[in-house]
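Worked example (supplementary).
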Amino acid sequence: MKIHSSSKLPREFYTREVLEVAPELLGKYLVKENGKKTFKGKIVEVEAYDGRIDQAAHTFTGRTPRNEIMFGEGGYFYVYFTYGAHYCCNIVTGKSGEGTAVLIRAVEPVEGIEEMVLNRYKKRSAAGNKELYNLTSGPGKVCQAFGIDKRDYGLDLTGDVVYLLDNRQIPGEKIAATQRIGVTRSAELLWRFYIKDNPFISKR
DNA sequence: TACTAGATCGGCT
DNA sequence: GCCGATCTAGTAG
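After joint prediction of all chains, the assembly is encoded as:
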């Protein structure tokens, strides 16, 4: 029996306003069960997207097959493919019809690190410090390391494949809010949140 | 350290 | 056709 294991976040955690959920995701654990392997990382950097007012959100211009899951209620996994090479994963938030989600931009590797190294660098030897910090420090890197792709689109985060584990909340003074990375529209919004001084974030 | 370009392809105009 | 919620390798300073 695991006495100290933290619990899976319930539906109610996700169905709140995206700007309330986003900073609270910091410090929580992202877990992917892959049949035999378990990938686990502490979330250290996120970005909020809100199709109601945010031109950078995929849901801003209305429903399409790709963004359908993001228009559903919170607690589902939105995975998309971009730049012809990378997958990025999001935590859908809010109520049905809103079109809000939080992009997971970086995590701190906790479990399954050897498998992450294999997925990222195609090699089996242990990672050096430089490689370790480069393992999951970006949205495309997180998905590659965890083996997340379009097959994970739409997964229920209260299920057993991909889910989040609770952890004590990061205090506000340890959270930084900045402009989002790589967006051109609605660039003024300070909707990127990360844990200050964490070495696994994508960019300082 | 800082900037630039190339890869590469699905989604949407 | 165009462009992107990216990453990496390359060059210049």
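Two points are worth noting when inspecting this output. The CA atoms of residues 117 and 132 of chain A lie 8 Å apart. The mean pLDDT of chain A is 95.
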